[in-house]
């Protein structure tokens, strides 16, 4: 019988704090072994939940999703889940019986505009940094190894989508601003979010209403979004590489050695 | 691929026999409900929707709260509950509307997103400042789904609002546009397609675009599928052009209904009317 994986906080969960001016988003990934949905026996379970509580602004209530929250959840779902960034088939352990359930909990601690872009960045960063326990199958027996037995493995990650939001100002909506603060957001006449990866693939576009914008401007914004996304990709790659270097102590041999700094 | 690419490349005809820039049959009626302030029924191919507009009316006790929730984050609407009418949009998708019967609750996020999109697009287009302290309620019912659902909902809403006589800047019309190759970066011969049905929507990348009147101004743009950024321009151009075609059709329907009402004596012909009704 497969046993429930023992979580070890340092290895299995990773908290990322995207701290920009006054904006903090916390994304936390956890994984557990469960039974897959009966209609998709070969897929693992992957879900993203977001919560905007009264901590962000007094107008948000617990258990009563506001418009912002609905749009944020939909956007993350379209950008990361529907675009196939995570290979859910790789989460399947025994078809129809056992699979990994990966869950991302997004907590917004304080918001000062541009919530969507930072939330998406935090989720992608957390998922790429996440390591799940290694497993092996012998016949019918599934073994989940603790981090001490075997090095945890990263998720099968296919591409990294990022969001770029453009806000439009002015009567004609021809003034474009990126990365707006909360105050600026109150004055915008329209906004448009593009989700792309560095290969120039659009995962999602949403300009949900607002003042009508010239079509040519939308095309220009899409090109700008691609440049921004490439910047984001480089930033995240650099951060992850730095972290991997810091964690890599030279494997088991270094751990077993009796040498120390003294 | 179920979209028969072999016949498409040979004859350039889609599965339902249309060419790349053909709209499906668009049939619409306005003033279908006698009791309502404004109503419409619209078919785009096999997608069938009904729209009923109530208002501008005094907000009901329960509605005020929902209206605030709907308009809360909208920058265009701001906190303008007092000096402008608030817009409430409800979309109900009938259980029998698609092939497999599926119950969709009120909390379905996909439907909520469509409601917000329509509500925000209307907020920027309608002259809500003329009706302070009031609510305009738009109820949409989806009777049958065969692709371009959001586009059909937006078009039906525009017609119903015209029937209700609510002042607006111009028509907001919408349609979908797709691209024939799903994901092959090197495929330059990919044609953009106009007005996709369900089968094409499942196979191909597509976007829904809504424009204001005859202009190139994009009121709403929703894309949910993976597509190369270089493809966007072609799809958008075809979509905007399709919106113009839809506008022409809707305008024809409104004019036909208007002249019929005058002939029947329901309304008086105004001397100020500059347009000729005989066509």
TrEMBL record, chain A:
InterPro entries from the UniProt entry: ExoRNase_PH_dom1 (IPR001247), ExoRNase_PH_dom2 (IPR015847), ExoRNase_PH_dom2_sf (IPR036345), Exosome_comp_Rrp42_subfam (IPR050590), PNPase/RNase_PH_dom_sf (IPR027408), Ribosomal_Su5_D2-typ_SF (IPR020568), Rrp45 (IPR033100)
PANTHER family, sorted: EXOSOME COMPLEX COMPONENT RRP45 (PTHR11097:SF14), EXOSOME COMPLEX EXONUCLEASE RIBOSOMAL RNA PROCESSING PROTEIN (PTHR11097)
CDD domains assigned: RNase_PH_RRP45 (cd11368)
Exoribonuclease phosphorolytic domain sequence ranges: 24-133, 160-227
This protein's name: Exosome complex component rrp45
Keywords: Cytoplasm, Nucleus, RNA-binding
Annotated Pfam families: RNase_PH (PF01138), RNase_PH_C (PF03725)
Places the protein is found: Cytoplasm; Nucleus
Coiled coil ranges: none
Domain of life: Eukaryota
Family: Belongs to the RNase PH family.
This protein's record includes keyword Lyase: no
UniProtKB/TrEMBL annotation, chain B:
Limits of the Exoribonuclease phosphorolytic domain: 23-167
SUPFAM superfamilies on file: Ribonuclease PH domain 2-like, Ribosomal protein S5 domain 2-like
CDD domains for this protein: RNase_PH_RRP41
Pfam families named among the record's database cross-references: RNase_PH (PF01138)
Domain of life the protein comes from: Eukaryota
PANTHER family: EXOSOME COMPLEX COMPONENT, EXOSOME COMPLEX COMPONENT RRP41
Protein family per UniProt: Belongs to the RNase PH family.
Protein name per Swiss-Prot or TrEMBL: Exosome complex component ski6
Provenance organism: Trichoderma ghanense
